[in-house]
Amino acid sequence: MNDNEAQVHIYTGDGKGKTTAALGLTLRAAGAGMRVLFVQFLKKGEFSEHKALKLLGDRVKVMQFGSGRFVRGRPDQEDIKRAGEGLETTARLLDDGMYDMVVLDEINVAVSMGLIDEETVIQFLDRCPDAVEVVLTGRRASERLMERADLVTECRMVKHYYNRGIKARVGIEK
Q1: The domain containing residue 151 runs over which residues?
Q2: 113: in domain
Q3: How far is CA 18 from CA 21, 65, 97, in A?
Q4: Is the model more confident about 173 or about 140?
Q5: pLDDT of residue 2
Q6: Using one digit for the tens of pLDDT, what is the confidence trace for 96-119?
Q7: Contacts of residue 75, Cβ cutoff 8 Å, sequence gap at least 6
Q8: Strands (DSSP E) along the chain, which ranges?
Q9: CB under 8 Å to 65, separation ≥6 — which residues?
């Protein structure tokens, strides 16, 4: 194995910090001259991280395929369609060779909720260009995806101020 060979990362678990870890990698990659595609599968709208990523210019492209609402119970067909389009669009963009890293933010949740089939994500990883670093985030990463990954980090909640009634704050959680 070559030290420069691209790897598949997973950030999962019930603790805070999964997307934040992916944003840190994005910042580091952009600083090293890499081009990053940051794809969000459940989120919609502009958050503080989007404003910061815009400052990196054309080094980072953000795309969203979420509906902007929490998916509870069985996802509807629109949610499933959006998620599928997100992965298809990402695959096409990677085939063009424009990106060195892709972040699939909340894709583990999308798989666990049935928005995207686990096999489809495995096929995506298998056909991903060898030179592209791939980062998957979200709770409930499947055993199969974790086996496929090269690095798995579990963010475990030990204590969280949310349990004291403190809501998401601008600049910290959103």
Answers
A1: 8-164
A2: yes
A3: 5, 18, 26
A4: 140
A5: 59
A6: 999 999 999 999 999 999 999 999
A7: 113, 114, 115
A8: 8-12, 36-40, 60-64, 101-105, 133-137, 151-154
A9: 39, 40, 41, 82, 83, 85, 86, 89
- The reported pTM is 0.93
Contacting residues for 21 by C-beta, under 8 A, at least 6 apart: 11, 137, 153, 155
Is the alpha carbon torsion for 148, 113, 137, 104 positive or negative? positive
Amino acid at 10: I
The answer to the question of residue 67 being in a domain is yes
Which CATH number goes with the domain that contains 114? 3.40.50.300
Residue 71 CB partners (closer than 8 Å, separation 6+): 42, 79, 113, 115
Count of domains forming the chain: 1
Task: Name which residue leads in pLDDT, 170 or 147.
Answer: 147
